[in-house]
Amino acid sequence: MVAPVRDRLAKALTVLLALPALLLPALCLLYILRKGVVGFDSAMLLGHHEAVAFDAVASLWPQIGGSLLLMLGASLLAMPVALGGAIYYTLAASRRQQRLLLTLMHLLMGVPPIVYGLCGLIVLVHLLHWGVSLAAGMVILAVIMLPMMVMNHINALARISIDRSEAARSLGLTQAAVIRRVWLPLAWPALLTGLLLGMARALSETAPILFTATIFSGVQWPESLFSPVPTLQTHLFYLAQAGASAASVDQAWAAALVLVLLVALFSMAALVLRRMGR
Q: Is residue 203 part of a domain?
């Protein structure tokens, strides 16, 4: 009788400890939803953009478009590098090199995003004279996404059966052909899952692009790769500074709601793909 009682107590204690981790995020999301719906209206998506300092704008489309543009550009930069790193780890790296690569990826994942932003400000904005621009934001977000994507791609390739690779080689396929005809067709759901999670990570970052990609106001759309870009993240940050303005606070909550929905969209797509991969 003692063992079942202990098991029930252990289970109850586990549930009790897990409740805050489940309830607090849910309550935060519900609060954002409630406040965001109050401040949101269709004019924000259908109106004309008027970026005037901290004041509320008539449309969020420029900010939504800018955030998605930064995210897509960073993904295009990070994806081939992450895939190349995973293939190198799987095929060519020695045990020591594999340990070194994994350690480096874990260290990079632990670096605070604001540090990446400061590095981007020093190297890209000032030393390379790119200025505060779309290109600088893309590069710094790609660097932030890279460690997580490399780890995901390594795990995706590791799940491919060795027998399939050996069978392909026995048929005379070169290593490049094995990668192209066996590995990528089998691993694409997991690879795409990692990409979508990286996109969600890029959409949730604010500090790096504050230093590298956006300016205070007056930008509707980047004229080139070396022009600033408006984003939802920094728009929300700027609006939050104007706490005395009711319109600005309402639109800040609306922008927060749109941003959370975009991040949730990519995260849910990654979850669906992961289940397909199984």
A: yes
pTM: 0.84
% of the chain surpassing 70 pLDDT = 87
Residue 38 CA to residue 49 CA, distance in Å, equals: 20
| Residue whose structure tokens are 């897990």 | 18
The reply to whether 133 and 20 lie within a common domain is: no
pLDDT in tens, 165-217: 888 888 888 888 888 888 888 888 888 888 888 888 888 888 899 889 887 66
Instruction: Give the total number of structural domains in the chain.
Output: 2
Q: Residue 13's domain spans which residues? A: 1-31
- Condensed to tens digits (0 to 9), the pLDDT of residues 98-107 reads 999 999 999 9
How far lies 169's CA from each of 91, 93, 179, in Å? 14, 20, 11
Residue 86 lies in a domain: yes
Q: How many CA atoms lie within 13 A of 265 on its CB side?
A: 8
Q: Which residue has the tokens 């200025």?
A: 131
Cα dist. 202→8, 46, 106 in Å?
A: 42, 26, 18
243 in a structural domain: no
d(CA 180, CA 186): 10
Residue type, 111: V
- Token pair belonging to 217: 């106001």
The answer to the question of residue 116 being in a domain is: yes
